[in-house]
């Protein structure tokens, strides 16, 4: 289980958020380290040598895999408290920060003057759709805050899907992991604040 690379938050600056490739790469790396490999992470918690070898186990064909995947509840809780939830919280913090940047005014927008010029030129243009039906088309440039807001919105949707899938596997494998991932994460947040 790699903990450090997936839960360490990058330096949160507007430049980090506006570098959409860097933001996307951070989120993908964090997800691949914890969520995409959740089965491997949970399997790493299994310690079959604790019970020792039972020679009678070879007398009957074992078709029930649930008996073999008994994970120590303390190990499961430790994984959730020290690896899974901190990773989710870090990604939430990054997305919340970048959402705030996306809704704030952007005085340093490098394309602002270009967009204003295009907008003024578009207002002056005479459109005769009878002569050229395509002359009315105008695709204004999207401000980088709008682009960032779209990216954050999409990444939050991805987070919802991935966390639901991950939590389903955790709840299936770890005893005492009931409820939704939102409830579990909020409970973990409350215990950290105390």
Describe the structure.
- With 194 residues, the chain is mainly alpha-helical.
- Helix content is 60%, strand content 0%.
- The protein is built from 8 helices and no strands.
- Helix 5 packs antiparallel against helix 7.
- The longest helix is centred in the middle third of the chain and has 31 residues.
- It is elongated, with a radius of gyration of 25 Å.
What is the fold's blueprint, element by element?
Layout: H1 4-7, H2 14-18, H3 20-33, H4 38-43, H5 73-103, H6 112-124, H7 144-173, H8 181-193
Helix pairs in contact: 3-7, 5-7
Kindly report the oligomeric state of this protein: single chain
Computed over alpha carbons, the radius of gyration is: 25 Å
What structural category characterises the helix and strand content? mainly alpha
Largest sheet: none
Number of strands: 0
What overall geometry do the principal axes of the alpha carbons give? elongated
SSE string, helices as H and strands as E:
HHHHHHHH
Number of H/I helices = 8
Taking pLDDT < 50 over at least 5 consecutive residues as the criterion, the unreliable ranges are 1-6
Helix content: 55-70%
């Amino acid at each position: 289980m790699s903990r450090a690379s997936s839960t360490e938050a990058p330096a949160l600056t507007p430049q980090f958020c506006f570098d959409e490739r860097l933001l996307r790469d951070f989120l993908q790396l964090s997800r691949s380290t914890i969520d995409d490999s959740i089965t491997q992470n949970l399997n790493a918690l299994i310690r079959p040598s604790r019970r020792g070898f039972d020679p009678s186990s070879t007398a009957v064909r074992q078709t029930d895999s649930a008996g073999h995947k008994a994970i120590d509840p303390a190990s499961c809780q430790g994984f959730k408290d020290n690896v899974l939830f901190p990773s989710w919280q870090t990604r939430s913090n990054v997305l919340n920060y970048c959402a705030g940047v996306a809704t704030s005014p952007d005085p340093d927008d490098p394309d602002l003057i270009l967009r204003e010029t295009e907008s003024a030129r578009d207002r002056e243009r005479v459109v005769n759709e009878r002569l050229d039906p395509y002359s009315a088309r105008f695709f204004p440039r999207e401000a980088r805050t709008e682009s960032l807001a779209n990216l954050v919105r999409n990444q939050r949707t991805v987070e919802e899907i991935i966390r639901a899938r991950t939590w389903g596997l955790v709840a299936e494998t770890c005893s005492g992991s009931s409820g939704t991932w939102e409830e579990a994460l909020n409970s973990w947040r409350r215990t950290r604040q105390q």
